[in-house]
Amino acid sequence: MADARPFHWEYTPEPVAREVFRIEGGRPLAGTIKVSGAKNAALKLLAASVLTGERCRFTNVPEIEDVRVMVATLLDLGVVVDHPAPGVYEVASGDVDWLFVPLEAAAKMRASFILLGPLLSRFGRVIMSNPGGDRIGRRPVNLHVDAMRALGAEIEYRNGYYFAKAPGRLRGGDVTFPFVSVMGTENAMLAATLADGRTTIRPAAQEPEVDDLIAFLQKMGASVERAAPDTIVVDGRRRLRGADHHVIPDRIEAGTFVVAAAVAGGHVTLEGAPCDHLGSFLETLAAMGVDVVCGRDTIEVRGIPPGEGAYKACDVETAPYPGLATDLQSPVSVLLTRGQGTSRVHETIFEDRLEWLGELGRMGARVEIADSRHASITGPTPLHGAEVSISDLRAGASLILGALAADGTSVIHGAHHVQRGYENIDRKFHDLGARIERLPESVSTPTP
Question: Looking at 134-173, which runs of residues are DSSP E strands?
């Protein structure tokens, strides 16, 4: 296994500052912004680059904290990572001499566990810390571990770490998940690319980010195909080559800004927007009566300003893709405060994802949380400025939406959560006319 040299960072992201968002609400949004690259694609693509010793080049990578943490983790493994321009990363994994992903990295970002498959498949051994991430419910990694074992890996868990090794090459096999797991699908797929023989993965996640990863692996020379919507087949290769890849747009960021325009009112155009990846989400907004027009790579939204009308109430339920993404449930929940009547929310993916609605209630939303997976929201309800706290990435972005639509000033604690996954979110809202600023945590409480 790995040697006993002390762990150290060769590159350290800037310390996370304790900041707040201060937002003066009640201003319609107007203008045009460009959608950034997808966080959930970029992280997996960076991990996939360790499957080859040749250089891989990525463009349209979002400049966010999670990417910086992944880069720092790769650098400490001995991977060479260059950052020649904003949004451009070049990765060369010729020598990886420190096959250990520590607690420091895992605690900051759950996606660090995606390195299990590629490192184990290419180098035959790795030590991984149990990962952290947002507190939105149980997200066990046993699915990933079981997938590696199905491919012949030997994995032990001791003192918070997984010690994994693959005698010889991993072997192709059947990987069967008890339910759809996006990162589980991706980890199994990455491991299988260098395994001996054929691997079949089912039920395989159908998210666009998974297909983006498949497209990159195919450029590397991997034999990976989606044999059916819920089935991925991989024929292992002995080696892969380097490749260039442009990261797809972030559908969650796009959806967040669509809701922002709808809930705060105004006229907003998104450029580089992935309409084809937002089917269920756009259907939900159409059912509510939101004016959304999709172009070839644009989305145009005309929202009703608060106090000038209401949308229709709508029941929503999250589901694996192509269903409504759990990451868009919280922005949609803010929009439901503008619905005429009572809307119901059913969260099927993460059991603690509705807890943040209590903070939205502090802004005046009429919310009833029936249990960890069900809530009702009654509207139309005028929101008012308040002091609230962010619990996770998507809840944080959604509280920003509530503050934009609210009358008065809001202070939102925990801005660092949002910086993990949204590139320059405060600057983009500022460019649309919002009064938003990021300030030190010592900012005073807003006056009611």
Answer: 154-158, 161-165
Residue 26 tokens read as 């009640």
According to CATH, the superfamily of the domain at 19-36+249-440 is Enolpyruvate transferase domain (3.65.10.10)
pLDDT tens sequence across 280-326: 999 999 999 999 999 999 999 999 999 899 999 999 999 999 999 99
- The gap from C-alpha 88 to its chain's centroid, in whole angstroms, comes to 19
CATH architecture of the domain with range 39-246: Alpha-beta prism (3.65)
* Distance between CA atoms of residues 442 and 19, nearest Å: 8
- The domain limits of the chain are 19-36+249-440, 39-246
Identify the three-state secondary structure at position 101: strand
pLDDT tens, residue by residue, 163-202: 999 988 999 999 999 999 999 999 999 999 999 999 999 9
Which residues on adjacent β-strands are paired with residue 413?
A: 20, 389
pLDDT in tens, 28-68: 999 999 999 999 999 999 999 999 999 999 999 999 999 99
Nearest to 53 by CA among 194, 209, 235, 186: 194
Q: Return the beta strands (E) in 372-415 as ranges.
A: 374-379, 387-389, 409-413
Q: Which helix (H) or strand (E) holds 423?
A: none
Query: pTM higher than 0.85, yes or no?
Result: yes
